Amino acid sequence: MANISIIAFDGTRFDIAAADGSTVMENAVRNSVPGIDAECGGACACATCHVYVDDAWTEKVGQPSPMEEDMLDFAVDVRPTSRLSCQIKVTAALDGLVVHVPERQG
């Protein structure tokens, strides 16, 4: 179990106890985090679960896979810390993870 924080665009903070093996997107949807649309349900086939990983966490979260990079081409306002939340698997090493939701999704 890891505690993750998802910061909505309006600044609302969602502190979530997330099960190992789940994804950040699954936890965002379960907790009704606004701005995480997740239209493909986590199949890495869209960019509607785009988030910005907090700078302090980018190394631990790692880089996107080539497939994820292709999908990020469809996201709005992509930044160096952009990731698809469906591709971030929760592990104990991510306890304390902070991600930010962009103003709008692709």
Automatic annotation (TrEMBL):
Gene3D superfamilies associated with the record: 3.10.20.30
Cofactor: [2Fe-2S] cluster
GO annotation terms (biological process): P450-containing electron transport chain
InterPro entries membership: 2Fe-2S_ferredoxin-like_sf (IPR036010), 2Fe-2S_ferredoxin-type (IPR001041), Adrenodoxin-like (IPR001055), Adrenodoxin_Fe-S_BS (IPR018298), Beta-grasp_dom_sf (IPR012675)
CDD domains in the record: fer2
Tagged with keyword Kinase: no
Cellular component terms per the entry's GO annotation: cytosol
Molecular-function annotations in GO: 2 iron, 2 sulfur cluster binding; electron transfer activity; metal ion binding
Claim: Transferase is one of the keywords in the record: no
Keyword annotations of the record: 2Fe-2S, Iron, Iron-sulfur, Metal-binding
Database matches in Pfam families: Fer2 (PF00111)
Ranges of residues in domain 2Fe-2S ferredoxin-type: 2-105
Family indicated by similarity: Belongs to the adrenodoxin/putidaredoxin family.
Record protein name field: 2Fe-2S ferredoxin
Native source species: Rhizobium rosettiformans
